[in-house]
Amino acid sequence: MNLSRRSFLASSTAALTGCSLLPSFKKGDWIDAHVHVWTPDVEKYPLARGYAVSDMRPPSFTPEQLFAHCRPEGVNRVVLIQMSYYQTDNRYMLDVMRAHPGVFSGVAIVDENAPDVAATMTKLVAQGVRGFRISAGREKNLSAWIGSQGMATLWKTAAELKASVCPLINPDTLPLIDKMCEWYPDTSVVIDHFARVGMAGGIKEAEVKNLLHLARHAKTHVKASAFYALGAKKPPYLDMGPLIRQVRDAFGAQRVMWASDCPFQVDPGHNYHDSIALIRDRLDFLSDQDKAWMLRGTAEKVFFS
Q: What is the CATH T-level fold of the domain 5-10+29-303, as seen in this structure?
């Protein structure tokens, strides 16, 4: 029997990731794989050094504010991404997770250079965290950052804990992440927002090539997210279709997950509906099985299992 390249990739990846059961396409019970929450209560949850209340835009984005956007669209579970306002103080995210059992998973921020980082990661996983965000930030020497002892500990510990490393990066960092995936093949990786391909304007072929090159690593995933910030940056975001198709073809839908990146997705001129509708309703090359993986199955496997 002859298999298409896409079918081969999909079946091979499913085997590699241990997924024998395919998710069904039933509208509702979707998972948003990337949301930030924060509270105006800066007395109980102080902002990290370098951040001011005036930086919090909007002034708050609580679970209740999120639910008003996501629940009408059938999104009932959410992956929370630790907000940069709090840096490594993950308490607000953890408190939100505890207050809503079964609704939220979490991606924390830790200081990879701290001597007790492995112990800290272990404690966070015990509280429901399933991923750890890394970001180049203002690093001047990306090679030194990615090759540091602290980063090695973070990647190794994530694999031991069956948690994911979640890079928030620009396209120029993709080759370095590729190296890390080579060095730590047992570590699950989730690339945020297509690695920001297309954020600076037009989607560049060389950047897309570097992103798709990561598909050779069986445990690497991509978030189809932050449509408001990529490409033309205008709803209904149909210009993102070709990139989504290329990522789906390279990784297989079971390694791609949709996410909104709220609250930024609901800034003026954008809304939650247009983000999920791009995957759910508007791209005719996505099969019902693709949608089931991208809107629920992949995030469920990575962040809720």
A: TIM Barrel (3.20.20)
Peptide bond into 40 cis (omega under 30): no
Taking only the tens place, the pLDDT of each residue in 134-150 is 998 778 899 999 999 99
Tell me, what amino acid is at 91?
R
Q: How many CB atoms lie within 10 A of CB 79?
A: 24
SS3 per residue for the chain: CCCCHHHHHHHHHHHHCCCCCCCCCCCCCEEEEEECCECCCCCCCCCCCCCCHHHCCCCCECHHHHHHHHHHHCEEEEEEECCCCCCCCCHHHHHHHHHCCCCEEEEECCCCCCCCHHHHHHHHHHCCEEEEEEECCCCCCHHHHHCCHHHHHHHHHHHHCCCEEEEECCHHHHHHHHHHHHHCCCCEEEEHHHHHCCCCCCCCHHHHHHHHHHHHCCCEEEEECCHHHCCCCCCCCHHHHHHHHHHHHHHCHHHEEECCCECHHHCCCCCHHHHHHHHHCCCCCCCHHHHHHHHHHHHHHHHCC
Contact status, residue 109 vs residue 88, Cβ threshold 8 Å: yes
Amino acid at 53: V
The model's pLDDT over 221-259, given as tens digits with 9 standing for 90+, comes to 999 999 999 999 999 999 999 999 999 999 999 999 999
Instruction: Assign 21 a pLDDT band (cuts: 50, 70, 90).
Output: low
Angle, helices 174-183/149-160, rounded to nearest 10 degrees: 60
Residue given tokens 């509702």 in the structure block: 28
**CB of 177 closer than 8 Å to CB of 167:** yes
> Taking the domains of the chain in order of start, what are their residue ranges?
5-10+29-303
